[in-house]
Write a structure and sequence with these properties.
Low-confidence stretches: none
Strand content: 15-25%
Order of helices and strands: EHEHEHEEHEHEEHEHEHEHH
Mean pLDDT: 96
Number of strands: 11
Number of helices: 10
Bound molecules: nicotinamide-adenine-dinucleotide
Shape: globular
CATH architecture: 3-Layer(aba) Sandwich
CATH superfamily: NAD(P)-binding Rossmann-like Domain
Strand order of the largest sheet: 3-2-1-4-6-7-11
Length: 261
């Protein structure tokens, strides 16, 4: 099996690479942080690494061209992502652009580069890593929420379209996972005061390795949407049963978070 993973230098991406490596896959680990991608590749028997900034379409096209030179890619995972937290009235347009650039344009670039190659070969599995924030109203990180809802919609629609070509499409939607994203993420305005309490919650969260294992189980079963963690499943279900109730619960949680900060 030949697999490509973006954002492979850390967290869930690195864990996906390791899990795929344990299954005997040849893994191409791509990340904007070349040293991190190299470190991930070094931990896997058959792996190579590539520096790739997913916000640059030419980088992603070069990643795909290089990967397909090695063989037909069975699994392409658009995983790279960032987050910026904060109340929407305290975010700048630059915050919106940065998050949408990585989390949405990055996925679009991945789809644009990998999907036609999979269609041409009539096979392959394209996977996007979204979030629980793409399955429900997730306040106080609106650029992130917007990007993840878009990625869920894109993935579900592409899955419908791709089936006639023999190509599989899935979207993974993890809840809270213990990865460096939480320390890396900038938080704007008053909400930044609540970061200490947030880190306390993350300490008990699911590990990246457990998350990667859950995602691969979902892919084995060819699930369209793969919620990971109990919280993600519960929130997704609540939003489908009663969007009004899901919004009310989110509103209470947002008020609580603002008071804590
Ligand atoms: N950790 C969580 O709680 C959680 C929950 C739900 C969804 N997710 C999603 O999972 C994915 C991975 O997140 P993580 O928690 O492992 O984060 P992480 O910060 O540990 O890893 C993200 C990786 O993406 C890379 N990256 C960032 N910008 C990039 C770019 N422009 N081009 C290429 N690579 C880039 C980083 O260098 C890093 O190695 C993201 O899409 C994130 O939104 C994470």
């Amino acid at each position: 099996m030949l697999a490509v993973v973006t954002g492979a230098g850390s967290g869930i991406g690195a864990a996906l690479c390791r899990a795929l490596g344990r299954r005997g896959a040849h893994v191409i680990a791509a990340d904007v942080d070349e040293r991190a991608a190299a470190a991930t590749a070094a931990s896997i028997p058959e792996a190579t690494f590539v520096r790739c900034d997913v916000t640059i379409a030419d980088d992603v096209e070069a990643l795909a061209a290089g990967a397909w030179r090695e063989g037909a890619v069975d699994l392409w995972i658009n995983n790279a992502g960032i987050a910026i937290g904060g109340a929407t009235d305290e975010l700048s347009l630059a915050d919106w652009r940065r998050v949408l650039d990585v989390n949405l344009a990055g996925v679009v670039h991945g789809v644009h580069a990998a999907y036609p190659r999979m269609v041409a070969r009539r096979g392959g599995h394209l996977v996007n890593v979204a979030s629980v924030a793409g399955l429900a109203p997730y306040p106080l990180a609106l650029p992130y929420t917007t990007s993840k809802h878009a990625v869920v919609g894109l993935s579900q629609a592409l899955r419908a379209e791709a089936r006639m070509h023999g190509v599989k499409v899935s979207v993974a939607c993890p809840g809270m996972i213990k990865t460096p994203i939480w320390e890396r993420s900038e938080v704007r305005g008053g909400l930044a005061n609540g970061r200490g309490r947030m880190f306390e919650r993350i300490a008990g969260a699911m590990t990246a390795d457990a998350c990667a294992a859950a995602i691969l189980r979902g892919l084995d079963a060819n699930r369209g949407v793969i919620p990971v963690t109990f919280e993600a499943r519960a929130v997704w279900m609540l939003n489908r049963i009663s969007p009004a109730l899901a919004t009310a619960v989110s509103s209470c949680l947002a008020g609580f978070a603002r008071r804590l900060a």
